[in-house]
Amino acid sequence: MTFAERMLRIDRRIIFLVIGLCTLLPLLYPVGLPIKISPEVRGVYDYIETLPEGSVFLLSLDFDPASKPELHPQAISLLRHAFRKNLRVIAMTLWVSGTGMADQVVTQVAREMGKESGKDYVFLGWSPGGTAVIINMGQDLYGAFPADYNGKPTKGLPVLQGIASLRDVNYAVSLGAGNPGVEAWYVFCKDKYKFELGGGCTGVMAPGLYPLLRSGSSSVTCSICRCATVPDSRANQGHNERCRLKPSSVRGWQQA
């Protein structure tokens, strides 16, 4: 009997037992594999660090629950960093299917950081039109979003004081899982309204966005979800050069 034939005759219960042990052991005894901070992540982190208090930070959560494992941690990390720097946060989404999730993550982190809606941040929600929404925001923010996600009129909100359009944004980040997403923000507003643009994407989108990054036109964070853990690690652990892979990452390798 050949080795291949022996493997095919293994009892399925033994296979399930091995898979269970491979999942359980990293949970009980974390491996703690190091991850070095990539230049792309460092660029986004360092730029946010240079923004003075009260600067306008726009975060567009352009993804839905299908891409949550990769982009949701990035959103949490960016929001924590922005709130820690006391930036004025404007959050929104171009994906109607991700509206509820986007509201949840913004509200969750704001509550964690002790921030108040309307005063320290605003979640604009979703508006129909796709890329046309970006163009409209470049002309008149209040025309594109006359009310926030909770139905409050955007005009008169303290967090939007002095903001009329995208020209008043200091830094914008799009976390995109497709179109519209990072590329749409780059094409329709980055150069036109002269603000720095950062971005996060899913792993399969990274090759298509690296040309934008290498051109020096944007500080696009083109990588998988580890990009989110590193800046958060730097902010919370004395700017360490390394962070540690969690058991969830090991489980991802097992699935692959």
Description:
By secondary structure, this protein is α/β, with parallel strands linked by helices. It has a single domain, classed as 3-Layer(aba) Sandwich (Rossmann fold). Helix content is 47%, strand content 14%. It has a 6-stranded parallel beta sheet, with helices on both faces. A two-stranded antiparallel sheet has the order 1-8. Helix 2 (12-28) packs antiparallel against helix 11 (247-255) and helix 6 (131-139) runs parallel beside helix 8. The two termini are 29 Å apart. The relative contact order is 0.17. Mean pLDDT is 82; it is low at 221-230 and 237-256.
Strand coverage percent: 5-15%
Report the total helices: 11
Helix-strand category: alpha/beta
Q: What is the helical fraction, as a range of percent?
A: 40-55%
Pick out the low-confidence regions: 221-230, 237-256
Which fold does the CATH topology refer to? Rossmann fold
Give the radius of gyration. Answer: 21 Å
SSE arrangement, N to C: HHEHEHEHEHHEHEHEHEH
Q: In the CATH hierarchy, what is the class?
A: Alpha Beta
Count of separate structural domains: 1
- Measured between the Cα atoms of the first and last residue, the distance is 29 Å
- The tally of strands reads 8
Q: Strand order within the widest sheet?
A: 4-3-2-5-6-7
